[in-house]
Amino acid sequence: MIYADYHMHTPLCGHATGSPEEYVQQGIKVGLKEIGFSDHAPMVHQRMPGITMDFDELPAYQRMIEDVQKRFQAQINIKVALEADFIPGFEAKTKEMIASYPYDYIIGSVHFIDDWAFDDPSVREYWKKHDVNEVYRKYYALLKKSAQSGLFDIIGHCDLPKKFGARPSVDLTEEIRSTAKVFKNCGVAVEINTAGLRKPVAEMYPAPNCLKIYREAGVPLTFGSDAHDPVDVGKDFDKATALATSAGYTECLIFKQRKVERKIKI
Ligand code: ZN
Ligand code: FE
Ligand code: FE
Ligand code: ZN
Asked: pLDDT at position 1, please?
């Protein structure tokens, strides 16, 4: 069993269910030693109710997580984090938001390409209007920019465009290699995110060949279930461990207040 699950949500984002306490209880039940809440941070360019928290919900988020930290400290370590979108041109505002509380780590995620939430099931038909190879190329360009922004500690689900099954028809290995180099140089980690198994693609993020490229480049690793429901905390972490090991990883990172606290053998 993996030590920590670093990616889970709360109802504050508007599309997750279950109280933080239930996520914690499930974490304890499945044998995790540590969990980190990483709910969707407010969008810095527009309000997005139902998709992310709002700015005025950040204090409640902090209080909610501090409450379970105290109540469950004898049983499990609990970290408080955010999953923040990378919105080009709004780096300063993002930086300010991230600095408003002593978060343990920030997951930087790309969910938007040119204002299209390409992983949102409600606008899934937009895939038909897009060139899949072009979407992937733009996606990797945004991943590089997210890492280079210096805003984030971990890059989330780093091949998300495959969620509904759209695959590039060209070989993007070089694109992924150059992305991995940028990640390494910028000091960000990648996550194995097991939520992909529960999506049409039925595969963890990132794919085995991608993960191997990140490992070869020396990019460190975290694990996340991306649970939006307490039952998914720590879900499929046996498969995640096998994926990490087959890619050559031997350890994962534990964060505290935006610094690597220690490394855990996997
Ligand atoms: Zn979500
Ligand atoms: Fe995400
Ligand atoms: Fe998430
Ligand atoms: Zn996510």
From this structure: 66
